[in-house]
Amino acid sequence: MRGRLVPILAALQPIWLRRCFQTTSTLRSFSNQIIKSPSLLSLDLADSWSSTSKQSDSSPIQENTNNWTAKIIDGKAIAEGIRSRIASEVSRMKELIGQVPGLAVILVGQRRDSETYVRNKTIASEEVGFKFKMIVFPENCTECEVCNALCRFNEDPSIHGILVQLPLPQHLDEAKILNVISLEKDVDGFHPLNIGNLAMQGMEPLFVPCTPKGCIELLLQSGVEIMGKKAVVIGRSNIVGLPTSLLLQRHHATVTVLHAFTKNPEKIAREADILVSAAGVPNLVRGSWVKPGAVIVDVGTNPIEDRRSEHGYRLIGDVCFKEATRIASAITPVPGGVGPMTVAMLLCNTLESAKHAFNFT
Amino acid sequence: MRGRLVPILAALQPIWLRRCFQTTSTLRSFSNQIIKSPSLLSLDLADSWSSTSKQSDSSPIQENTNNWTAKIIDGKAIAEGIRSRIASEVSRMKELIGQVPGLAVILVGQRRDSETYVRNKTIASEEVGFKFKMIVFPENCTECEVCNALCRFNEDPSIHGILVQLPLPQHLDEAKILNVISLEKDVDGFHPLNIGNLAMQGMEPLFVPCTPKGCIELLLQSGVEIMGKKAVVIGRSNIVGLPTSLLLQRHHATVTVLHAFTKNPEKIAREADILVSAAGVPNLVRGSWVKPGAVIVDVGTNPIEDRRSEHGYRLIGDVCFKEATRIASAITPVPGGVGPMTVAMLLCNTLESAKHAFNFT
């Protein structure tokens, strides 16, 4: 029986791919835009229910075939393409109106992962021609100091995007601080009003949070169809899990959110056509969590000690990459997957904000 | 084989019940409060993940046993209890500070279901001793007329809750109109900022939307444990499906939202320990959609023609009641389930708003 399964499985592989990937012609039609993500407004289709239950198109569960390797979704390359298109837009803006977008970042303390993220944002921001301002506060700074700095950025007309690198030290009230950021400059999109508008049909947030927007963009640019697919999001953080689940739902996936109180997450994850992990736990998602042919987006960036590495540590994802590549049809690597996309989407949101401020089209 | 299954199934029934229902001692500890729903703030538990996958406690799928009948969750009785406690609070308020809560309703057009809902709200509001104001606009009224009326209610210090009966006629911009309602008087909780705060960990909405709050209250008052349960919400409307899914997630259920683009909704629904249907499709949820022992909350209120009825129609739910009662462990009826709870929660939110406005504890 087992011997007979192998050729059947081999024959089925193109079907997974046909199901999960759109034709390249769709890709081409977006080539003149900076990103593929469509206007959120256009995603509001009418929910027209019928009493008859619909048929499933889910493939039968299939066993590992050791010679199968998932397509690696190259976030670095996709992000580079986006950054290059942003740089062109910034040049055009400078040439036509003598202005460039401005991004301001506040960093508190010396978390090594936060420092890495901010360094990447600084480099990327300067590369595309943005004006960049940064304030670094010591770990023991006061809420008042951070809020005052934010107020100055709010009033600065040369700044179009403001972000506070999270997480903040525990003595600072994150919600209170984030609330100080002017809605028009909240390029991280973490304001509750933005999240509410992202969640609700018929509404449109000013900015879609960067990492979730990056995840969707990776799927779209890889030709993965989202509508009608079963999506499982592992983690429900305000900055990744929650907005990613809302965004996937906007794209008409059937979304389940797993969290630490979920019973048997492995079984639920294994039903996902699209599996997004944002739990922050190294190797949480083993091969047995993956449905054959699934597309995996690994948002985890977990620092683990590595003496051979330049900084004494390296980043690994939530997903056991070796096991998952034998089962999934496509997967984002860590590093080089979602990380570069988060930065690209931050630039994208800041550019949008500047265009709006300057009434530049 | 079939013959042998019956005694096994009979023996298993108490296990479903033990799993789904808390002990009554928990119930008693809340008896001096108006409702059982805890403060949302306290629901933010830390997500502590571990790499080891957790074991499932899901029961094996079981066949119908025709002699089994689900417990009917009596929304009317539960709502009456809540309304009676609200009336006591209003008396106390009147006695101590000479004030009562005020509720204002705007109704546009002559939809018979909307008229029924508004009639119920009027009666309930007056019964508990609220001040009640209503404006009825004709179907062809302008956005401006509705907004002006809302502004007057916003400024009226004797009004603490304002609601616009939905749906509005198509020529009116629902989002724009709802946005006019002062956040402090948005007792329906439909403002995007409220929804954002409901969705986000560490945040707290001013008001939880009435129908979702009523659904959770029905579960809690019936002793149904939510944490760790698989919940499926059918429908993703801004006023029921979306906020119900967010609220269930706040109570640490593992939530999946089904919508019109979901493939094989029947299969997914059948995995739910708690099944909430808010699709607005009569008899959408057949017996085959229900997991044995599940708890069903039927939010559907679909008017169907009935010449024997006083108004020429009667309301039925989304769930095929006859089939579901043979499989579920508990179910809310239509009418008499969620409907009365929606009204009770509206009164509850308005009382909270008035208490806040008068600084009355």
Largest interface: A-B, 62 and 61 residues
Strand content of chain A: 5-15%
- Subunit arrangement of the protein: homodimer
> What class would the helix/strand composition of chain A place it in?
alpha/beta
Mean pLDDT of chain A: 86
| Structure annotation, total helices of chain A | 12
Q: How many strand units of chain A?
A: 11
Q: What CATH first level of the domain at 206-339 in chain A would be assigned?
A: Alpha Beta
Strand order of the largest sheet of chain A: 1-11-8-7-5-6
Stretches with pLDDT under 50, minimum 5 residues of chain A: 1-32, 51-64
CATH superfamily assignment of the domain at 206-339 in chain A?
NAD(P)-binding Rossmann-like Domain
- Along the chain, the helix and strand elements of chain A come as HHEHEHEHEHHHEHEHEEEEHEH
Beginning-to-end CA distance, first to last residue of chain A: 62 Å
* CATH architectural arrangement of the domain at 206-339 in chain A: 3-Layer(aba) Sandwich
What share of the residues of chain A lie within helices? 25-40%
Largest sheet of chain A: 6 strands, parallel
Structure notes:
2 copies of one chain form a homodimer. Helices cover 40% and strands 13% of the residues of chain A. In chain A, helix 3 runs parallel beside helix 12, helix 4 crosses helix 12 and helix 8 (210-221) crosses helix 12. With 361 residues, chain A is an alpha/beta fold. Among the domains of chain A are: 99-195 and 342-358, Leucine Dehydrogenase, chain A, domain 1 (Rossmann fold, 3-Layer(aba) Sandwich); 206-339, Rossmann fold. Chain A has 12 helices and 11 strands. In chain A, strand 5 (230-234), helix 9 and strand 6 form a beta-alpha-beta unit. At the A-B interface, helix 7, helix 9, strand 6 and helix 10 of A face helix 7, helix 9, strand 6 and helix 10 of B. Chains A, B: Catalyzes the oxidation of 5,10-methylenetetrahydrofolate to 5,10-methenyltetrahydrofolate and then the hydrolysis of 5,10-methenyltetrahydrofolate to 10-formyltetrahydrofolate. Chains A, B: Pathway: One-carbon metabolism; tetrahydrofolate interconversion. Chains A, B: It catalyses: (6R)-5,10-methylene-5,6,7,8-tetrahydrofolate + NADP(+) = (6R)-5,10-methenyltetrahydrofolate + NADPH. Chains A, B: One of its GO terms (biological process) is tetrahydrofolate interconversion.
